[in-house]
Amino acid sequence: MLKRFFSYYIPYKKLFILDFSCAVIAALLELAFPLAVHRVVDDLLPSSNWSWIIWGCVSLLGIYIISAALHFVVTYWGHKLGINIESDMRKDLFTHVQKLSFRFFDNNKTGHLVSRMTNDLMDIGEIAHHGPEDLFIAIMTLTGAFAIMFSINWQLAVLTFIVVPLIISLSLYFSKKMSIAFRRFFADIADFNARVENNVSGMRVVQAFANEEHEIAQFNENNGRFRDSKLIAYRIMAWNSSISYILMKIVTLFVLLCGAWFVINKDMTNGEFIAFVLLSNVFLGPIKQINGVIEMYPKGIAGFKRFVEMLETAPDVADAKDAIAVQHLEGNINYQDVSFGYEGKENVLETINLTIRAGETVALVGPSGAGKTTICSLLPRFYDINSGSVLIDGIETRQMTLASLRSQIGIVQQDVFLFDGTIRENIAYGKLGASEEDIWEAARRAQLEDVILAQSEGLDTLIGERGVKMSGGQKQRLSIARMFLKNPSILILDEATSALDTETEAAIQQALTDLSKGRTTLVIAHRLATIKNADRIVVVTEDGIVEQGSHHELLAVKGAYHRLHEAQFSSR
Ligand code: ADP
Ligand code: MG
Questions:
Q1: For this UniProt entry, what's an example GO CC term (predicted)?
Q2: Angle between the 13-39 and 270-311 helix axes, to the nearest 10 degrees?
Q3: Rounded to the nearest whole angstrom, what is the distance from the C-alpha of residue 437 to the centroid of ligand 1?
């Protein structure tokens, strides 16, 4: 894990070296100050030479100015280093999340993912900046201070330093406790985010059911847990800082007391005494620094662990090593003995066999939950099958790169997902960078032209989050326009019009028929006219594919299709 952490420094080697060396020089200057005072008190003061004293002060001023400049570098460029590393980690995480498969998103909450991308990495930049630097400087300053104190009065130096390991081991003890506390804290904040995300995106349902009080109660529970876990972490932190503070002050008192004794006994000069007291404070600095790193570390590292965990989640659907990028598919589809199940639902499809010729329109019909949508989602490899094979144009889909395979398949679903943005952006999502004419052409073919022209902003009309500012029919037309631009060889229409009223449905049907022209089309529909128009009807039930044929053929068999027909369509 440390190796992975430090790999993020590689692009910023120069920045790191600059920041690091400035911090080291600043620390050395800090160390030199007590020595300078020591010389002033013991050598310059007794000489009563004013010009020397003024010269001494002027050079000290010079040193302070240099120190200030160094501190600027460390604060600004050091944080720049940390922020860059943090943002690189975010980028890697986001990139990785794009590759994760449907199965992953089925089983993880949106709020959790957002939380990992934002909060979890918030402290890692601080760690990246301060961690190695502070630790190195602290150790260097401690060693330096000890060496100088030792040379002045070794007995007192040894006595003073006995307390150092005590404070550090105490900090380590607290750090461990805090690490656990912060891990819980991040888990709670993720839950909290998930709760808020769920509430806000479902606000229309919440208000329609007038369940605000219930939502608030649930929120309070999450909020309370989040507050408590944060409080626990801070309590440990408070114990740690109070105990180390009192220990450090006891050291200073101790140095004052012993030092005074040495001075009175003429074993130490005044200058040495002052230098000693000042140095004992200089060395308290690094202990504070180490303490700070130890305090910050668990928080940053808890987030980093969650980050690594996520990066190491391998996508369960990925390109094969020797995957080929298919250029164009005719659209001959072949399911051979395909078996598939979801997590916790193992036998959704068992040894399914289905052949669809290029250009053919096949209607999948059957009861809800039979597996029609599932059959379709196997084609673009949203999920990988357990056994058997899915072939397009005789090539196994697993042999194709996901990008090339998916570029050939278009899906129009019942619930359209639109992105927050303009009509133009949402249509152009089908073919990024599409020209103005192409967008209008797609809109026209999807019968969306009039809708767009009726808006004052035209193509630049904002449609709201998930397209809330559009009607169901308009949203569906937009998703069809998107598909005209994408122009795939294979088209899947999964109950594309089921959510619409009959009139809107009839209007959109024309666009869909136009869209399916010249493409292999799999259509899942409830509307008899759509089903009748298909070249072939495939009946899917819990037992798999049970019948295939034309409308009249299947009715004549008086089997599953006949029963379905009686139940679903006789009333229309
Ligand atoms: P249909 O489209 O024929 O109505 P589906 O293919 O959507 O049926 O569903 C088939 C079965 O698989 C159902 O029992 C459903 O509960 C289950 N299922 C569908 N999607 C998932 C999923 N993402 N995770 C787990 N089970 C699922
Ligand atoms: Mg379905």
A1: plasma membrane
A2: 160
A3: 39
DSSP-assigned letter for residue 16: H
Helix, strand or coil, per DSSP, at residue 475: helix
Q: How far apart are CA 252 and CA 276, in angstroms?
A: 10
The CA 413 to ligand 1 mean position distance, Å, reads: 14
- What is the token pair recorded at 419? 């992105």
Q: What CA–CA distance (Å, rounded) separates 289 from 139?
A: 10
Q: Measure the CA–CA gap between 305 and 298, rounded to whole angstroms.
A: 10
Residues linked to residue 333 through DSSP beta bridges, in sequence order: 356, 392
pLDDT-wise least confident of 112-126, 421-435, 514-528:
112-126
Q: Is the pLDDT of residue 572 over 60?
A: no
The ipTM of this complex is 0.98
Domains and their CATH numbers in the chain: 2-311 (1.20.1560.10)
**Over pLDDT 70: what percentage of the chain?**
99
Residues 100-113 as b or e (16 or more Cβ within 10 Å = b) = bbbbbeeebbebbb
pTM metric for this prediction: 0.80
> Does residue 342's CB lie within 6 angstroms of at least one atom of ligand 1?
yes
Residue linked to tokens 């060496």? 147
Average pLDDT over residues 267-272: 85
Choice from 316, 335, 342 to test ligand 1 binding pocket (greatest atom count within 8 A of CB): 342
